[in-house]
Amino acid sequence: MVEARRNTFKSPKPDAPRLLAYDLLTEVNRNEGYSNLLLPAALSASNLEDRDRNLVTELLYGTIRMQGKHDWVLSQLSDRPWGEVDSGIVDLCRLGVHQIHEMRIPDHAAVAATVEVARKRVGESKASFVNALLRGVTRKSIDDWFAPLREIEDPVTRMSIQYSHPEWIISAYFDLLK
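and the corresponding structure tokens:
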């Protein structure tokens, strides 16, 4: 009987808003697309309800906005240099971390939904890696992840990570304040 249930279990399908957000994020990051042009066109072509459209919008814009902050967390977890990780995995993990740290989505739901998108878009083995990284993210609070920032002496680097802004912008602000 247990064997019969295993054979009939089907993994849940990834939801349309997260699939669309991932596809758009990939287009922006890999093909130099402009999110402000891609998103309205994609939403117009979709049959998503308003609530799902809002989710896609926050996932895309929020993930892009907080990319530096998310990469800081993920680079602490990955056993490989973060710059060498497959671009599909990077985008998926950023989406997952955004849901975990920046949105009011329960950790288990954010991880499960992101892993389902990973299965659909990048395959089972890469989805396992995404799952491992995102579960690692959920093991600590956001404050615990950013505690090591206090040890970074260079204020430009520290603020760049903390506020997810490029270092050149932080430097420009410092120069203006002198």
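(Above: one complete record from the training split.) The CA atoms of residues 99 and 110 lie 6 Å apart.
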